[in-house]
Amino acid sequence: MARLLKSVLIIFSFLFLCATVVFAEDITITTYYPSPYGSYNALQTNRLGVGDNNADGVLNSSDVPGTNGDVWVSGHITMGYQIVTVVIPNTYSIGWYTCDCPAGKRVLGGACSGTGVAYTYIDGGGAGFHCYKNDQWGANWQIQAVCANML
């Protein structure tokens, strides 16, 4: 009888161990640091890459600059901007005309429309966009500057 009980116990133990292996499951826990939806008071880094900067379709370490202090951004940065327009009616004079940005903003670019636009430039401080009119035709003339918040 003891032998029969011992055999039954061994068989049940063997079946229990086999069932445990058969019904085993894997559990994977993924954690993110920092949290993808977190709120931060301060963030500091030596190098920063935003987006797929090398256009290979994969986000990896090759999208981060190799030099400390560099920032690479794939796409556009919105800093807050405004378009300033200066209309100069019946412009018969040849010369430079300027469209200045408000205080605290600098020129990102601009455009001149009308006849006789020969040269354009942004002044050294970035405060104004300048156009040179090189003919005396008097149609309305317009200068636009795209002004962004200074960083």
Largest sheet: 3 strands, antiparallel
Mean pLDDT: 77
Domains, number: 2
Query: Radius of gyration, Cα only, in angstroms?
Result: 34 Å
Strand residues, percent: 25-35%
Q: What count of helical segments does DSSP give? A: 1
Write the H/E string, N to C: HEEEEEEEE
| Widest β-sheet, arrangement of strands | 3-8-5
Helix vs. strand class: alpha+beta
Number of β-strand runs: 8
Describe the structure.
This protein is an alpha+beta fold. It has two domains: 28-77, no CATH class; 81-149, Immunoglobulin-like (Sandwich). 14% of the residues lie in helices and 33% in strands. The protein has one helix and eight strands. It has one helix spanning 2-22; strands spanning 48-50, 71-73, 81-88, 95-100, 105-113, 117-122, 128-133, 141-149. The strands form three sheets. It has a three-stranded antiparallel beta sheet with strand order 3-8-5, with no helix packed on it. Strands 4-7-6 form a three-stranded antiparallel beta sheet, with no helix packed on it. Strand 6 (117-122) and strand 7 form a beta hairpin. The model has no long low-confidence stretch (mean pLDDT 77).
Summarize the structure in short.
This protein is of the alpha+beta class. It is built from 1 helix and 8 strands, in the order H-E-E-E-E-E-E-E-E. The termini are far apart.
